Amino acid sequence: MTSTVPALGTRTAEGSALQAVLLDMDGTLVDTEGFWWDVETEVFASLGHTLDDSWRHVVVGGPMTRSAGFLIEATGADITLAELSVLLNDGFEERIGRDLPLMPGAARLLAELSAHDVPTALVSASHRRIIDRVLKSLGPEHFALTVAGDEVPRTKPHPDPYLAAAAGLGADPARCAVVEDTATGVAAAEAAGCHVVAVPSVAPITPAARRTVVTSLEEVDLTFLRGLMTQMR
């Protein structure tokens, strides 16, 4: 976990109960959920197995231990979890080295949060090596804190990553807005007690208490995020 926490005076914008914004990475800020599936498909093809497209909804958004473990069990591939994790991370890193498209609205939202000194964290189930590579495109200056999936005892769907991010920013989870694209990430954020904005990428997500669903980050700005604190108490 890396952190450059801003001064306490920047924690909340004037007149706002919003203390911090916690952002997922894959499928939320960068258009990479499809990359993971492509890499998984290629790796298992090299092992002599074909992945069923219906499995994509099972593995999306979760920790690598869960998704890779599921695919090993489902295919019966003769490979260990540790060996597969290396192959998947290597393949994904090579893939994003060729192209790393940002989701529509991502650059604008990050710039707005930075301009208003809103403490912002990147919270991902991806490993540190992947996060550090993606940060080069997102701009590390936009984040006071980053939390990787291999740096917490339990990653998403457990609340640990979001609790760690809120604590690292000195924020109350109940006054944090989380932006996520998968049900796994939403579950983690809600278990941590955060307000959630869901921008579904692969599978649908339904609205619920303390959960707002939008179709694109283009609909999300600082005014919108501040409004969550008053609308969803």
TrEMBL record:
Coiled-coil residue windows: none
Membrane-spanning parts: none
Keyword match Hydrolase: yes
PANTHER family with a match to the protein in the record: 2-DEOXYGLUCOSE-6-PHOSPHATE PHOSPHATASE 2 (PTHR18901), PSEUDOURIDINE-5'-PHOSPHATASE (PTHR18901:SF38)
Hydrolase in keyword set: yes
The organism of origin for this protein: Streptomyces ardesiacus
NCBIfam families: HAD-SF-IA-v3
Keywords: Hydrolase
Gene Ontology MF, one: hydrolase activity
Protein name: HAD family hydrolase
